[in-house]
Design a protein that fits this description.
The protein has a 5-stranded mixed β-sheet, sandwiched between helices. It has 3 helices and 5 strands. With 150 residues, the protein is of the alpha+beta class. The protein has helices at residues 30-37, 80-89, 110-125, and strands at 50-56, 62-70, 94-100, 129-136, 141-143. It has a domain at 40-143: Cytidine Deaminase, domain 2 (3-Layer(aba) Sandwich), CATH 3.40.140.10.
């Protein structure tokens, strides 16, 4: 019997750091997070939901922000695998989830609470810390951490 050798598909990683450590923004609070994240939502804030994740190093300095998904008027998806894959790729120590509510309602939905809990548990397996989940509107924000939900 002849056997065929198969090569496993793999993700290749290339780490290119374009920002000096001294130039990175330090995230000190939910207000700092909101200010840093809000420009990413400029074109969708009141139109449709989007999800972004901010990745941080151990000093809570922002490594970058990644678009996770674009949704409709009432929901968007946060895929745990994609979030954690990106966190590992950028060598993050912590993450801050975010999404907007086009309706202007800052209250987190039950699905918002469930996915936050799932991601928090998944982060523990990889020695990552879920620092916050920010819900943004054009004028205000809701912080899961500030409200004691993380």
């Amino acid at each position: 019997m002849k056997t065929t050798e198969f090569t496993m598909p793999e993700i290749t990683i290339s780490y290119k750091d374009n920002v000096k450590a001294s130039e990175r923004v330090k995230i000190l609070s939910s207000e700092t997070s909101y200010s840093y994240l809000k420009p990413f939502y400029a074109e969708c804030m009141e139109h449709h939901e989007e999800s972004y994740v901010m990745f941080l190093n151990r000093a809570n300095k922002a490594l970058g922000v990644s678009l996770i998904s674009k949704g409709g008027m009432a929901e968007t998806v946060m895929d745990v695998k994609i979030i954690l894959q990106t966190a590992l790729k950028v060598h993050a120590s912590g993450i801050i989830l975010s999404h907007n509510h086009p309706s202007g309602n800052l209250c987190p939905s039950e699905p918002d609470k469930r996915i936050t809990s799932r991601i928090k548990e998944a982060c523990k397996c990889l020695d990552l810390v879920l620092l916050d989940h920010i819900i943004l509107t054009d004028e205000h924000y809701y912080s899961f951490t500030d409200e004691g939900l993380i």
